Amino acid sequence: MKHLLSSILFVLALVTAPTVLSASQDASQSSEQVETRSVDINTASVQILSEQLRGIGPAKAKAIVDYRQKHGKFASPDDLVEVKGIGASTLEKNRDRINVSS
User: Fold this and answer.
1) Considering its fold, how many domains does the chain have in total?
2) Domain that holds residue 2
3) Phi and psi torsions of 99, nearest 5°
4) Pair 23, 73 in one domain
């Protein structure tokens, strides 16, 4: 009887495993889609900038907003390196996430 019960549980585990893996992959893809949303650095708030851009915390996000208010809109994503504390590597990590409005 124990052997039969163990066999049934083993078969159930094999049958349900692909469903569990598929669900976790879907959740992973869903979170990746959230992460790759485009951020308009000319209009985004400190909170949006810090949440959506890699390597940008609240202090750097505030520096972006302060720079934008002082110097006007960014003409291209490359202009982001003009903000103190943001270098080329941070720009490259986020290039696919950044857009600029006119």
Assistant:
1) 2
2) 1-35
3) -140, 165
4) no
